[in-house]
Structures are given as structure tokens and as C-alpha cells.
Design a protein that fits this description.
Length: about 270
Amino acid sequence: MTEAAAIARSGGPVTQARLMVDFRRLGVEPGMTVLVHTAMSRIGWVCGGPRSVIEALLQVVGPEGTIVMPAQSSELSDPSGWCEPPVPESWWDTIRASMPAFNPHLTPTRGVGTVAEVFRTWPGTRRSLHPQVSFTAHGPRAVEILSSQPLEDPFGAVSPLAVLNGIGAHVLMIGTGWETCTTLHLAERLSNPQGPTFEDGTAIRVDDERRWVRFRMPQTDVDRFPAVGAKLDGHAILKHGHVGSAPSRLFPVAQAVSMAVEAWSLPAFMA
């Protein structure tokens, strides 16, 4: 959505003060740990842009709260698997040989929105070390959440998502659909830990040298997220509201993961 379109659909500027009111009405409280997904264009015209969204979130959770966001960098993957868009096969070897190694401070996010990208560079924000599907966090629990994310199982039982699941964290979805709900990847891994994998590759630094490494990643399937999301939408654990003009949700990680694991363990969902 263009800025002109955002202005046209807005009844007025969405200010930082308005955002704070909307977050509190939705149920965000001081001291919470919140994994945030944001579709900035759905909020409307925000005075101050992504900065106002981040500052409002930090103000509402306060100094004892922690904000977490996805920081995916899918371009640091094997070019043979690229499809949006694909590149010619004749380019693959050159890309593998010259792709810059993942750097938690310099590698930008991709496909997770402007708020997540601005948050990545926010003073005091930390980032996990997975080259493709890292997370960022700001607050007193950031180190705990980001401390471990295995290369070959970044969403599993030892991951930032697993920590969020164990510490009573919440998910805040601002104008995003269920296909963006990263938390459900943990449910995928818990419901089928021996599920299918695929071969991938990336550039990282090993012993202070850039190397192209090959590894296997779990196969994910976001197409089945909306069906579980529909069940969650009708459950008492989930709170609905608006942030600006964006339909938004707030819900606890642990209960959502538990419900998804139970659903995906049933034959109808496994088919």
C-alpha cells in the first residue's frame, strides 16, 4: 500500500499515544514478553512511522517487558530453491561463492515488514545467530530468549520459540494473517519432530573465515496455519481488537502451541 492510500483510508493520523491506548485495550501489559508481527500498511497513516509503533510497544510493556520480532533473512539460502523470484541456474555457483556471510548486525531482514527491520537496528536490540530465520529481542529477557537456535532445527525444542513457550510469552499480530504466525512452527516441530527435511545452504563465518555450508532444514507448511488459526480465533484465550485500523490479536504462546499440537496430531490434520 502506498502512503497516499494509507492516508486515504485513515480517519486521521495514528499517533504514538493512540497506539499505546490500542495496545493496552488489546491486553498488552507492563512486564509482558511479546512476539510481534506487524503489517504496517494495515494500521493506517502512522505519525512517525515504524519508530512510533516500536516506541509505543516499549512504553506499554515498560522496562520489565521484552519485545521480540522475527528477523528472517531468506536470501541467505541456496539459490537452487529460490522461487520468488527464481534466478538462472547458471548463476548458482557464483551466488554460493560470493554471498556475504551472515552478520547479525549488518544482514537486513527480508519479508517481515518495515517495523521488524527498524527494530533490528534499534539501540539495545539483540539478534539470534541463525543465518536465515533469526529473531530480535529488546528487554531484560532478550539474552535468555535468543541464546540458542540450532542451524538445523531453528524452531524446535531448543530455540527462541521454545523459550517463549516456556516463559509465558504472548503473540501480538497487528494486521497480519495466520500464515505469518511463526509460533506455529514450534507446534509443527513438537507434533512431528521426525518430520521431513530438505537440503539447504548458506554463507556463515567459521573460525573467522567465510564458508558456504550445507545443512538440512525442517520442511514447514504455512498453508495449514489458517485452519488452526480459525480454531484459535474462536477460543477464549485469544483477544481481538484493533491497532489503528489493523485487525489485531493477542494470545498466549503456550496455549496456542498446545492446541495446534493437539490438532495436528489428529489424523484429519495429518492427511
